[in-house]
Design brief:
The chain has 123 residues and is an all-alpha fold. 76% of the residues lie in helices and 0% in strands. It has one domain: DnaA protein, C-terminal DNA-binding domain (Chromosomal Replication Initiator Protein Dnaa, Chain: A, Orthogonal Bundle), CATH 1.10.1750.
Length: 123
């Protein structure tokens, strides 16, 4: 009986690890697609710079990671080399606000989303 409980716990742990690996793959795909859309290296999204060249793409990537994974804001911030959750939360809010106001930015989001769908990432 005791052995069965251990097997269940091991199976749950393995499932959690597999889920985490798939979500990390999703983050990598998002970084790659956003980077290629803006013609920057995916590693550039981890820079702690405020240059618009990197800031807007990083905010978009954080927005998509928040939307398509179960990571919390602090985890997302760490995935992008940031120090706290507030920056990730701000990024999500900025993208949501900008796409409701600016059609050009909404088109960018939709084009990137289309590329993500082609890679198997969907709502």
């Amino acid at each position: 009986m005791e052995l069965t409980k251990k097997h269940k716990k091991i199976a749950e742990f393995e499932k959690a690890v597999a889920n985490l690996n798939s979500e990390i793959e999703i983050v990598d795909i998002i970084k790659s697609e956003v980077g290629s859309f803006f013609k920057i290296k995916p590693e550039s999204l981890n820079k702690k710079t405020r240059l618009r060249t990197y800031l807007w793409p990083r905010q978009i990537a954080i927005y998509f990671v928040r939307k398509y994974t179960t990571f919390g804001l602090l985890d997302i911030a760490k995935l992008f080399g940031l120090t706290n959750h507030a920056t990730a939360l701000h990024s999500v809010k900025v993208v949501q606000n900008d796409i409701s106001v600016d059609k050009r930015k909404l088109n960018q989001i939709n084009l990137i989303k289309l590329n993500l769908f082609k890679n198997g990432i969907q709502d």
